[in-house]
Structures are given as C-alpha cells and as structure tokens.
Amino acid sequence: MLAEGIVHGDAVDLLPKLPAGSVDLFFTSPPYADARAYSRIHPDRYVEWFLPYAEKMMVATAETGSLVVNIKNRVANRGALKGQRHPYVYQLVLELQQMGWRWIETYIWSKPNAVPGKFGPRTKDSFEYVYHFARGERPFFDLDAVRVPYKADAAEIARRNLDVNGRRTTAAGFGRDRTKTYLRGGADPGNVVSVPQTYNQHRGVSHTAAMPEGLAEFFVRCASPKGGLVVDPFAGSGTTVVVARRYDRQALGFELHEDYVHAARDRVAAGQADDPAAVLRAVGQ
Ligand SMILES: C[S@@+](CC[C@H](N)C(=O)[O-])C[C@H]1O[C@@H](n2cnc3c(N)ncnc32)[C@H](O)[C@@H]1O
Q1: Is there an atom of ligand 1 within 6 Å of 130 CB?
Q2: Whose CA is nearest to atom 3 of ligand 1?
Q3: What's the 207 CA to ligand 1 centre distance in angstroms?
Q4: Taking CA atoms, which of 89, 117, 118, 202 is between 20 and 30 Å from 73?
Q5: What is the percent of the chain where pLDDT is above 90?
Q6: 278: pLDDT confidence band, cut at 50, 70 and 90?
Q7: pLDDT digits (tens, 9 = 90+) for 140-178
Q8: Which is the closest atom of ligand 1 to the Cα of 53?
Q9: Which sequence spans correspond to the domains of the chain?
Q10: Residue 211 near ligand 1, beta carbon < 6 Å
Q11: Per-residue pLDDT tens over the stretch 103-113
Q12: Is 257 in the pocket of ligand 1 (CB under 6 A)?
C-alpha cells in the first residue's frame, strides 16, 4: 500500500489492513457535515458516521501515535436548530474522548484570507478547528520543529540573555528564568496557527476542499517523527501525503472517489503541488 501512495477505496475497509500499532500519525480533514457533493453526511448523523473510522484508526495507531482532525463548524440549514451553529463538532470530540482517544489540544487554524460573503447575523468564517488526540499517555510531539522567529530584536535578546536578575517570582507566583527565554531557537507558535487558505490551487486537481500545504506541514512536523508513518484516510487531492513525504515521513492516503485518486497520485508522483509551503508564523506576527 505504501508504494501506491494513494489507495482507492473506502477508508472503513482499508484501515483494518494497516498493521495494528503501525501508524505514527493520522492527519486528516474528513468530509464536513452536509457540505460537499462528495459526501452529504447530515450533521445529526455525523458522529455515528465517523465513529467506525475512529475505532479502526485507534487499532492502527502506535502507542505514541496521534489522530489529528481538521474539522469545521456549520450552520444548521434545517430542523430544530435551523439558523444556529450545529454542535456536531463538539459532540464528535466528546465521543472520541469517550472512545479512549486522549484529547491533547484544540488548535485554531486561522485563515487570514477567508472569503467574505453573506452569512446572516454573523461574520465570515475565518477559522477551522484542528483537534489533536493521542492514543497513549506519552504521544510524540516535537515543539522545536514548529518554532517561529522570536518577536524581540537581536539587541533585546542579547540583553535578556545577560540579565543577572533573570529569575524573578512574579505576582502570579511564577518563577520563570527569563535568561532562558531566547535559548530555544525560536518561539512556541501557540495553538492558533495562521495559514492562508489556497483556493483551487492545484492545476489539474479540481478538489473543492483541498487544504493548504502549510496546515499539513505544521502537524506533520510536530506530531510525527522523521521516518514515521503518516496516514490520511480521507486523502482528497493528496496534500497530507505530498507534505509528509517532503518531510521524510512514510505516507499513505485512502480516497473513495476515483477522480481524486488519479489526481492525487499524479500530485504525489510529482512530489510537489502548486502552492509553495506556507511560511508558518504565530498570529500577530
Ligand atoms: C475534505 S476532503 C479532503 C481534502 C484533502 N485534505 C486535500 O487537501 O485534498 C475529504 C475527502 O474524503 C473523501 N472521502 C469521503 N468519504 C470517504 C471514505 N469513506 N473513504 C475514503 N475517502 C473518503 C472525499 O472524496 C474527499 O476527497
């Protein structure tokens, strides 16, 4: 399967073919509720739809492995909740936790270039969620891989490194040693990850929901080890697989729709897509 890169089929059938405990990272953007012509899963039934995939991913995940899911809220367009935000994302998160997935973090994917429009009594959607779940108590996580440039200038960094009164207990009770603040090669980017959305960016890959490479890059780099196995069970145009291979991971994707399979295989074979890897930066920088 690894040689194929993108395997055609339903992930619910393909996931059990992965050896138990073999996957370091499942990174995926599943079909969102009710959204696209290729899925049409009603938000009321979304959790029920997703759970069999989550169970199979759990079996295939290594003890130090993770499941990272990019998902988006939606507004209910019918039923009792019509016009309100539907709670399916939160229901899913709670069910996954009940299943035994350890809820490690909620990231906000901030989209500085989200498309404006008419959305009723609300602003445009300019973020999506990325939920990090882990199989075990000590998941792999490499913060150094996603550090961003410090905001302070070189003079301030030099001054801080020489600060003889570096360790001070603040009113809040923290005794942080400020002389060590700038010794880590970059700042912690925080859990709001700003990556511009790229719209229909892949020539020949007319996938309507392709994610930007920068999003995959962030999570592949921090949540999987080099040489590890990254799997995207809802591979679409193959973004996860392309990016994971670029960063020296083994990678595999499953995709239900044949057109996308061919397009994604071409993209994986070329080893690159049209949008350059995004420059990661903390929000506000
Ligand atoms: C949101 S898109 C993923 C986009 C992808 N991240 C990219 O950058 O191109 C979800 C994909 O899941 C695929 N899909 C839906 N149900 C599936 C299933 N049961 N098994 C495998 N793929 C499925 C859809 O065809 C769609 O391409």
Answers
A1: no
A2: 236
A3: 9
A4: 202
A5: 67
A6: very low
A7: 999 999 999 998 888 988 887 787 766 666 666 566 677
A8: 19
A9: 6-149+187-282, 152-185
A10: yes
A11: 999 999 999 99
A12: yes
What is the pLDDT, as a whole number, of residue 175? 62
**279: pLDDT confidence band, cut at 50, 70 and 90?**
very low
What is the DSSP secondary-structure string of the chain?
A: -TTTSEEES-HHHHGGGSPTT-EEEEEE-PPPTT-STTT---GGGHHHHHHHHHHHHHHHEEEEEEEEEEE---B--SSTTTTSB-THHHHHHHHHHHHT-EEEEEEEEE-TTPPP---SSS----EEEEEEEESSSS----GGGG-B--SS-HHHHHHHHT-TT-B---TTS---BGGGTT-SSSB---SEEE-----S-STT---TTPPPHHHHHHHHHHHS-TT-EEEESS-TTTHHHHHHHHTT-EEEEEES-HHHHHHHHHHHHHT--SSPPPPPEETT-
Q: Average pLDDT in the 79-106 region?
A: 96
- Dist. CA 162 → ligand 1 center (Å): 52
Query: Is the beta carbon of 145 within 6 A of some atom in ligand 1?
Result: no
Cβ of 34 below 6 Å from ligand 1: no
Domain 6-149+187-282 fold: Rossmann fold (3.40.50)
Ligand 1 centroid to residue 203 C-alpha, Å:
18
Q: Which residue, by CA, sits nearest to atom 5 of ligand 1? A: 236
